[in-house]
């Protein structure tokens, strides 16, 4: 990442603020709990990866 550009450096805190605003940490904790309970199920692992990706993409697209 090129830190010399002002608009790019402002993007990082805004992105993290969206995670806080959308309560993504609670969603991730719930996902981890489900993953711990169903660690043997490959579909739960796939769900975990895809939901994490979707949370990031959703925060990126919110701007």
Describe the structure.
The chain has three helices and no strands. It has 63 residues and is mainly α. Helix 1 crosses helix 3 (42-61) and helix 2 (24-37) packs antiparallel against helix 3 (42-61). The longest helix is centred in the last third of the chain and has 20 residues, at 42-61. The two termini are 18 Å apart. The mean pLDDT is 91.
Can you give me a brief rundown of this structure?
With 63 residues, the chain is mainly alpha-helical. It has three helices and no strands. 79% of the residues lie in helices and 0% in strands.
Task: Detail the topology: elements first, then pairings.
Elements: H1 6-21, H2 24-37, H3 42-61
List keywords for this structure.
mainly alpha; about 0% strand; about 60 residues
Q: Could you tell me the number of beta strands? A: 0
One letter per element, helices H and strands E, the order comes to HHH
Distance between the termini: 18 Å
Q: How much helicity do the residues have?
A: over 70%
Strand content: under 5%
Overall average residue pLDDT: 91
- Largest β sheet strand count, sense and barrel closure: none
What's the gyration radius in Å? 15 Å
Compute the number of helices.
3
Broad shape = elongated
Structural class designation: mainly alpha
Low-confidence stretches: none
């Amino acid at each position: 990442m090129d830190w010399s550009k002002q608009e790019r450096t402002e993007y990082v805190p805004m992105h993290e603020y969206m995670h806080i605003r959308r309560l993504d940490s609670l969603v991730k904790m719930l996902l981890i709990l489900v993953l711990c309970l169903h660690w043997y199920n490959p579909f739960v692992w796939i769900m975990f990866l895809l939901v994490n990706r979707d949370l990031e993409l959703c925060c990126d697209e919110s701007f």
